[in-house]
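User: Hi! Is it possible to get a structure for several chains at once, not just one? Here's what I have:
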Amino acid sequence: MRPLVSTLLVALLPLAAGAQTPATVQMDKSFIRFVSKQMNVPVEGRFKKFSANLSYDAKKPEASKAEFEVELGSVDLGSPEAETEVKRKTWFNTDTFPKAKFVSASVKSLGGDRIEVTGPLTIKGASINITTVATVKTDAAGVSVAEGKFPLKRLAYKIGEGQWADTDTVADEVEVRYRFTFSSRK
Amino acid sequence: MTSTRYSRTAITLHWLVALFIFAGFGLGLTMVDMSFSPQKLKFYSWHKWIGLTIFALVAIRLVWRLTHPAPAMPASMPAWQRRAAHVSHLLMYVLFFAIPLSGWLFSSAKGIQTVYLGLLPLPDLLTKDMGDIVLAAAEAEKPFTVSELIRLFHKFMNYLLGALVLMHIAAALKHHFIDRDDILGRMLPWLKSRS
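Assistant: Yes, the chains can be modeled jointly so their relative placement is included. Here is the combined structure:
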C-alpha cells in the first residue's frame, strides 16, 4: 500500500504546484519526439530527459508562456550506434552544448484552442526563431495538454556537419513533435 | 515442342537475378563492418532495394517457369544428378524469397521502415517492440532478442545460398568443360549447341 500512496503523492504534486505559475510538466504524459528522414526513410527519435515550464489561460491565451529545456544526451534513436554518433562533435556536440532551450517570445491566439507560439530555439550555440501552432485542451481539473509540431532545419544549427551535411542521406528538415501536460492557472 | 534452351525471358531473368545476388551479397558483407557514416546508410538502403528487386524478379521468374517448362536435361545425365539439380534449384527459389523477406522482417524489427528506392514505403511487418522482445538473456550486456534471431536467420540463409550458388556455378562449369554437354548452353544463348 505504501508505495501506492507515495506514487499517488508524486503524481499529485504537480497538480498542487499548479497554483503557482508557470507549472512544470507531468513527464509521463509529455514527450518531445522528432522525425528525421534517412534515405527518405522516416526515423523517429525522442528525448528521455527534458524539463518544461508552461502557463496557459484559456481566457487570456496571449499571456501564455512556454519554456523548455532538452538534455540532448538523452536522445533515444532505437540504435546505440546512432545514439553514440549524434552526441559527437559533428552532430549535437553534447560535451560542449548539453542542452537545447526554447523560450516563447510571443503567443498569438488563433481562435478556439489553437495558439501560435514564436520564440528562439537554441541548439548548439545557435538561436533561431521558430513558430509552432499548438492545440491546448484544459480539463475540469485544470490540467492542460498542449500538443503540436514544428519543422526545423538541422543544418541551420550545424547538426550533422562535414560528411553528414549531405542532405541526400539525411534530410535537412526534421519534424519536432511535442506534447506537454501541465496544470494551468485557474 | 521441346527446346534445348531456356526462353529469352527466362535467360534474361536468370542473369539479372544473378547480378543482383552478387551485388546484394557483396554490399551486405561490406556494410555490416563499416563504421557509422552516410556511406553506410546508403549501402543499407541499396542492399534493401536490391533484395526487394530480387524478390520481385524471382516472383516473375517463378510464374514464367511454371508456365514455360524448362528444357529437358541431357539423356546422358544420371538420375541422381537430375534429382540433385531439381532439389538445389528448388532450394534456391525458396531462399530467393525467404532471404529478402527475412531482411524486411529484420528492418521492421529494428524499427526502420523499408522505403523501396526511397519512393515506395512498405508496411512494417513487425514493430520494434516485437523485435526487442528478449528470448534469452545470454549476457547481461546484450540480450538475445527477436531481431537478433531474425538477423542470424538472414545471415545463415545467405551463407546457405552462397554455398548453393557456388555449387551451381561449379556444376555448370563441370557440365561444360568435363561432361561437354549442353547444360550451360541452355542459359548462354551464344554457346553453340553440341548435339
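Chain A has one domain: 2-183. Confidence is low (pLDDT under 50) at residues 12-20 of chain A.

User: Great, thank you!
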